[in-house]
Design brief:
It is a single chain. This protein is α/β, with parallel strands linked by helices and 229 residues long. It has six helices and 15 strands. The strands form three sheets. It has a seven-stranded mixed β-sheet with strand order 7-8-11-12-13-14-15. Strands 1-2-3-4-5-6 form a six-stranded mixed β-sheet, with helices on one face. A two-stranded antiparallel ribbon has the order 9-10. Helix 4 packs across helix 5 and helix 5 packs parallel to helix 6. The longest helix is centred in the C-terminal third of the chain and has 12 residues. The termini are close together. One of its GO terms (molecular function) is hydrolase activity. This is UPF0173 metal-dependent hydrolase M4L89_02995. InterPro entries: Metallo-B-lactamas, RibonucZ/Hydroxyglut_hydro, UPF0173, UPF0173_UPF0282_UlaG_hydrolase. Belongs to the UPF0173 family.
């Protein structure tokens, strides 16, 4: 399985003949190596509704006839307001099987909204992390989150091969809390830091994070690079 990183929190993989993208923030993402007008996807997984995660969801879904997997509120918003036809609403604790593998949403501590044309925030459900089981691997994308102790329970229930964890601080965990989460609670085989350096407020040194992690292996990926299993 090729599992690649594409700036901010965007990851992409192909499994069982299906193409999947998580949090497709491409347009407006100075780190992204992807072309939103060219990429082909069958499924889009959303951790929450903020623009730097929701990103190009509508355009990708409509152009590719892709299925969007996310919170019930995100599903309603996409169906009612954006005319997206294929939506699979889920929620925290729920697990479902898809052509590429399984998806289970878990809690994250953050917020989730978009601002409408009138400047009013639209609530888009609880923020979530996601456990993806595919081709014998367990991927934990924590989404945007602060540190919380139930990460330990999540990892005990789903031993993690690859964890994508935010280190940008300000809006999410910073290096101290993220490394604590990895060392104490999640203990994955491979950790990939995400959600940093895209904006001034979240500039961080990933090598400092790597030095602070004492379990497993940290792989610092440039946009377009893949996890080495």
């Amino acid at each position: 399985m090729n599992l690649s990183f594409h700036g901010q929190s965007t990851i992409y993989f192909e499994a069982n003949g299906k193409k999947v993208i998580v949090d497709p923030f491409i347009t407006g993402n100075g780190q992204s190596d992807l072309d939103a007008n060219a990429i082909e996807v069958d499924y889009i997984i959303l951790t929450h509704g903020h623009g730097d995660h929701f990103g190009d969801t509508v355009e990708l879904a409509n152009r590719n006839n892709a299925t969007v997997i996310g919170s019930a509120e995100l599903g309603d918003y996409l169906t009612t307001n954006k005319n997206v036809e294929n939506v699979r609403p889920m929620n925290i604790g729920g697990k479902a099987e898809f052509e590429f593998g399984t998806v289970k949403f878990v809690q994250a501590f953050h917020s989730s909204s978009l601002t409408d044309d009138n400047g009013i925030p639209v609530y888009l459900g609880m923020p979530m992390g996601v456990i993806i089981e595919v081709e014998g691997k367990t991927i934990y994308h924590t989404g945007d989150t602060g540190l919380f102790s139930d990460m330990k329970l999540i990892a005990e229930r789903h031993p993690v091969d690859v964890c994508f964890v935010p280190i940008g601080d300000n809006f999410t965990m910073g290096i101290d809390d993220a490394s604590y989460a990895i060392n104490t609670f999640i203990k994955p085989k491979i950790t990939v830091p995400v959600h940093y350096d895209t904006f001034e407020l979240i500039e961080q040194d990933p090598n400092e994070f790597k030095s602070a992690v004492t379990v497993g292996e940290v792989q610092i990926l440039k946009p377009g690079e893949s996890v080495k299993f």
